[in-house]
Amino acid sequence: xxxxxxxxxxxxxxxxxxxxxxxxxxxxxxxxxxxxxxxxxxxxxxxxxxxxxxxxxxxxxxxxxxxxxxxxxxxxxxxxxxxxxxxxxxxxxxxxxxxxxxxxxxxxxxxxxxxxxxxxxxxxxxxxxxxxxxxxxxxxxxxxxxxxxxxxxxxxxxxxxxxxxxxxxxxxxxxxxxxxxxxxxxxxxxxxxxxxxxxxxxxxxxxxxxxxxxxxxxxxxxxxxxxxxxxxxxxxxxxxxxxxxxxxxxxxxxxxxxxxxxxxxxxxxxxxxxxxxxxxxxxxxxxxxxxxxxxxxxxxxxxxxxxxxxxxxxxxxxxxxxxxxxxxxxxxxxxxxxxxxxxxxxxxxxxxxxxxxxxxxxxxxxxxxxxxxxxxxxxxxxxxxxxxxxxxxxxxxxxxxxxxxxxxxxxxxxxxxxxxxxxxxxxxxxxxxxxxxxxxxxxxxxxxxxxxxxxxxxxxxxxxxxxxxxxxxxxxxxxxxxxxxxxxxxxxxxxxxxxxxxxxxxxxxxxxxxxxxxxxxxxxxxx
Length: 527
Known about the structure:
By secondary structure, this protein is mainly α. It has helices at residues 3-13, 20-37, 45-51, 56-83, 86-106, 110-127, 130-143, 149-177, 180-199, 206-209, 218-230, 234-262, 270-288, 296-315, 319-346, 353-382, 384-405, 458-470, 473-484, 489-496, 500-525. Residues 17-410 form the Major facilitator superfamily (MFS) profile domain. It holds the Pfam family MFS_1.
C-alpha cells in the first residue's frame, strides 16, 4: 500500500471528528450564519409596522405573502445551488435579506413593507437546505465520513440561537437610543458582513464530482431530485419525521404565545417566554450532537417526552408549567431533528442534496399551512387546550417515527449519475479502434506521467477522497476494501459476493476513475 492509500486509510479509520483545519474551513460559514441571524429589527418589527399603518388584518396579509414566497422559491433555489454554487446561493440570500431590511426601513406604508416581506421570503428560501448541504459535504471532504455532522450542526444551531438572543436584546436597547427606522438600517451592515464571510468560505465540490453541473440538463436535475424525494423505502420515513418535527417546532414559535394569552399572563412574561424558546434552539443543538439518540432506549425516551409535553399543553392551566413544556418540547424536537437530518443527507447523493433538502422544506411549508389554519380555527372556536390535541396527534406520529428511524441503519443513497460497474473507466475516444493496423485497442491518448507531481499532499488526498466518494457503491466498496483497508482479492470477493473476474474489473474501473480525476487535477495545477 502506497503512502497516499495509507493516509486515506488513516483518515477513514481515525479521523471521524473535524480537525482544526476543518473547523477553520467552516469558521467563515459560522460567522456568516451568526451575522445573518443577528436581526436587530425583529423585536421592534410589530411596533414599527403599527406606526406605518398595519392593523391585525394587514399583519395577516404580510404573513401570507411571506408564507407563499418561501415554498415557491425553495426548490428552485436548491436546484440552483446544486447546479451552480451553494455558496453563491447563500450570498444571494444575504443580499435578499439586506434588501428586505433596507426596504423595510424605508417603508412608510403597507404595500412597500409587503415588498420587504417578499425579499425576506427569498432569503429563507435560499437558506433552506443549502446550509446543511454545505456542512454535510464539507465534513465528507474533510473526514471521509458523516460522523461529525451532528456535532457540527449542533454548534451551528447554538450559533443561530445565540445570534437571535443577542439580536433581540440589542435591538430593543438600540431602538430606545435611536429611531425604530434606524434600527432596521443598522442591520444592513451585518448582512453585508455575512456576504463577505461567505466569500471567504471554501465551498465543497462533492456535488460537482457527483454529476451536478451545467452539462446535466435542468429536466434531468429536476427529475433526479424528485425521484429521490418520492422513492419508496426508508428515506420516506426520514422525510416524514422531518416534517412532523418541524410542524411541532413551528407551532411553538408561531402559536406558543396563544397559551399565554389564554392564561392571561402579565405582559412582562412574553419576553422571557420568547427568550426561552430561542434559547431552546441552541440547547437542542447541543443535545442533538450527542451520540446516544441512535440507541433505541434513548429514542423511546425522546418520543415519550415529546408526547408528554404535548399532553401538558392540552391539560395544564399553569403558566410556568405551560412555558416549561413549550421550551422542553422545542429543545427535544431540535435535538432529535439533528440526527434525523444526518439520516436524510446520508440517503441523498451530493448531486441533488441541496435540492432534496429544499424540497423537504417545501413539503413542510405546504403541510404547515393547513395545519396552522386548523390550529387557529380550533383555538378560536374551542380554546388552545382543544387545539393542543392536534399537537398530541403530531407528537405521537413523530415519536413513533423517531423510534423507527433513529436506531436503524441510515438509508443508502441512490447511485449518483456517472460510470457504473458495467461502463468503461475512460472515454472510448482515448483508445485506438479495434481495427487499427498497428495497435488495435491500445491507448490513443495515454495518461500523463506524474514525475514532478506531489501525490501525497493534503490537496491530492482530498481529490482522491472526493473521487472515491463520488463513485457508485459497487465500485467504491471494492476500491476501499482493496486499496484503503488492504484486503486481498479473495477477502473482497468473499465479503461482497463477487467472482474474481467481477472483482478485478470493478477495481480496474474504480482505479481508473481516481486516476482520471487526479489527471485533470494535475493538469489544472501544473498546466
